[in-house]
Amino acid sequence: MSQTKILIVGAGASGCMAGVKSAELGYDVTIFDKNEKIGRKMLITGKGRCNVTNNCDNNTLMLSVVSNPKFLYSAFSAFSTKDTMDFFQNNGVPLKTERGNRVFPQSDKSTDIIDVFFKKLREHHVTIKNEVVTGLIIENNKICGVTTNNKKEYFADKVILCCGGASYPQTGSDGSGYELAKSAGHTIVEPAPSLVPIVTKQKWCGELQGLSLRNVTVTVKQIGEKKDKIIFSEQGEMLFTHYGVTGPLVLSASSHIDIRKNFGYKLIIDLKPALSEEQLDKRILRDFGKFINKDLINSLDELLPKALIPVVISESNIDKHKKCNEITKQERTSLVNTIKNLTVDFQEFRPIAEAIVTRGGVSVKEIDPKTMQSKLVSGLYFAGEMIDVDAYTGGFNLQIAFSTGFLAAVSDDFSDNIKSLERNV
Fold first, then answer.
1. Is residue 393 included in any domain, yes or no?
2. The pTM is what?
3. How many structural domains are present in the chain?
4. Pure H helices in 190-271
5. Distance between CA atoms of residues 418 and 226, nearest Å
6. Does residue 166 lie in a domain region?
7. What residues make up the domain containing 90?
8. In a domain, 38, yes or no
9. Which residues are registered as beta bridge partners of 32?
10. What are the beta bridge partners of residue 349?
11. How far is it, in rounded angstroms, from Cα 197 to Cα 213?
């Protein structure tokens, strides 16, 4: 009986995991990648430190997925965040858990993560080809292999597409995998940026470039014809830039803004979420008492970052040179309201090339969630970012890649006794 041949397209997180596990199960594995080195996108994740996963349970993991979380239930059950941590630690990479349960190598080097995959792939004699897959060979609704830019044909029993999305195209994740999926008859949910900085309509955001805010709450409202709808609200950190806003809070908020739909959006920043409006008013009155003869512009230094004060006063429609003892109750109410509801209007996302991940991709309706196999073409599998799933920052998207790559490798179609196998990857 000949050895089962598996071709994997893409040597990113999902492709590397699928390659390692497929080879461990005894299959003849070849990985194709347009880059000379594997794991290009993993190299730059977590600002070069590689946030490999999140140290949380499966329930938290599911709640952190924005698009189609139920589709990933089997994948997360097959390969959990604990399995990911065990995989790297058992292969010589000590890990650490930081704020928000983010997991990094203790060395803070993403190269350590990639070195594990390279070592495991080489150890199991996986062939890595620096070729671009340009087509799929399909006969009678069954995958037979792939064609490459070298006009070569490679035949196999199973093909796993791990081509990535359309973000960070310089790493090879340029959206070309969607064309391969379409050629097999699959529906592509329109790709859009996710976990991406936001361009705002307000020009004063640019004037605050470089200002970082901590412990603020950002709420996103979707503008409706009759009333607005809150679609996101969370406390954390954000940053003003020359074009608008970014930072962890803003990136998470962007996951809920769907530019493919005809809605307007606004971001409301609560600069003092720990204080109620009444408490904040009392605090302002105390400060006014201290600086009773000072101009308003010079009286808020103990309450707000200096760069932000002129903006807050302007948005409150108060004369910045008005003395504190002349501020009316109505003006003070306006000031409190602005501090609790500093509003910026969404204009657009930064380009998809700057997004951390891509929203959209191969429709989950056409993929078996228990195996990651195509429902349209036998032997064709999908894993990672090219599927229409995405999650918050914090290691969740890499976990999706590892889990779906693992499941695609160990699917029941190619391993009837997989449930009895130890997952000692």
1. yes
2. 0.87
3. 2
4. 204-207, 248-254
5. 53
6. yes
7. 5-192+358-420
8. yes
9. 9, 129
10. 198
11. 15
10 Å CB burial of residue 294 (0-12, 13-18, 19+) is middle
Residue 425 lies in a domain: no
What does each C-alpha distance from 362 to 10, 375, 384, 389 come to in angstroms? Answer: 15, 12, 10, 9
Judgement on whether residues 231 and 282 belong to the same structural domain of the protein: yes
Identity of the residue numbered 272: K
Render pLDDT for 359-407 as a digit per residue (tens, 0 to 9). 999 999 999 999 999 999 999 999 999 999 999 999 999 999 999 999 9
Same domain, yes or no, for 220 and 301?
Answer: yes
| Per-residue model confidence as pLDDT tens digits over 199-234 | 999 999 999 999 999 999 999 999 987 889 999 999
Query: Of 349, 367, 384, which marks where a domain is finished?
Result: 349
Instruction: Count the neighbouring beta carbons within 10 Å of the beta carbon of residue 155.
Output: 11
Q: How far does the chain reach from its first CA to its final CA, in angstroms? A: 26
Tokens of 320: 């910045």
- Residues 246-296 have pLDDT tens digits of 999 999 999 999 888 889 999 999 999 999 999 999 999 999 999 988 999
205 plus 282 within the same structural domain: yes
Structure tokens at 199: 């361009």
